[in-house]
Design a protein that fits this description.
Layout (H helix, E strand, L loop, with lengths): L1 H6 L13 H7 L3 H9 L14 H7 L3 H9 L4 H6 L3 H17 L1
Helix pairs in contact: 2-4, 4-5, 4-7
């Protein structure tokens, strides 16, 4: 991963849907990649073409550890809530509530 960050494409590169490696790592619960990308300056608030953010994906999938990392690095829960439908908003609220009880 570090070699790719040194010599590969920009960490903000997107596919046709605006999805970044960071969004994908959060969606797939790859905490190590999420942390490494955050250390290398990726925007915690990056969103795809539909406004879907990494925080939305992590919460939707129930990836509490990723949600914790994103919030710790400044992800805006209120902003994320505005970009998703009711079901994902409820999951995001639940994940955030769980984190507040475990810290």
């Amino acid at each position: 991963m570090r070699e790719l960050l040194k010599h590969g494409p920009s960490i903000e590169s997107t596919n046709n849907n605006g999805w970044t490696t960071f969004n994908s790592a959060a969606d797939k619960c790859n905490v190590d990649v999420v942390r490494e990308l955050l250390k290398n300056g990726v925007s915690v608030e990056s969103a795809n073409n539909d406004g879907w953010k990494s925080l939305n994906s992590a919460a939707k999938e129930g990836h509490v550890e990723v949600v914790r990392e994103l919030l710790k690095h400044g992800a805006n829960m209120e902003s994320a809530l505005k970009t998703v439908g009711h079901l994902s908003s409820q999951k995001l609220k639940k994940a955030t509530w769980m984190l507040s009880k475990s810290c």
